[in-house]
Amino acid sequence: MASITVRFYSIYRLYLGMDRLSLQADDLGDALAQMEERVGPRLREQLQMRGIELDQKMQDFSLILVNGINIRNLGETKLREGSVLHIFPPSAGG
Fold first, then answer.
1. Residue 94 domain-assigned?
2. Does residue 22 fall inside a structural domain?
3. Is 46 exposed, middle or buried (0-12, 13-18, 19+ CB in 10 A)?
4. Is 34 inside a domain boundary?
5. Separation between Cα atoms, residue 70 and residue 77, nearest integer Å
6. Which of 8, 21, 50, 51 is deepest in the core (most CB within 10 A)?
7. Using one digit for the tens of pLDDT, what is the confidence trace for 7-56?
8. Can you tell me whether residue 93 is helix, strand or coil?
9. Domain residue limits at 67
């Protein structure tokens, strides 16, 4: 298993009360499942308190980068020792 870091940004830091989380995972699917289990309910609770109802997993409504690459653009999902997952809330604006 690889030791990886999950970093949270923007309002996720505020809502979760943390800026990072350490995990042991071999692949992206395992890391996302652990992240969802550990902080997903708390994040959805915080969003719900602000009138936002979400039944989805965090990965479905967040921008997620692995070592700077969007997970939608990754060909391989295996993680290496020291990999970093960057988790951003959805954004809008102009």
1. no
2. yes
3. middle
4. yes
5. 11
6. 8
7. 999 999 999 999 999 999 999 999 999 999 999 999 999 999 999 888 88
8. coil
9. 2-88
DSSP 46-84: HHHHTT----S-GGGSSEEEETTEEGGG-S--B--TT-E
Domain at 7, CATH number: 3.10.20.30
Q: How many domains does the chain have?
A: 1
Which residues fall within 8 angstroms of residue 43, CB to CB, at 6 or more apart?
Answer: 12, 15, 16, 58
79 inside domain: yes
For the entire predicted model, the pTM comes to: 0.89
**Token pair for residue 68?**
């700077």
CB 62 within 8 A of CB 89: yes
Tokens of 30: 């395992």
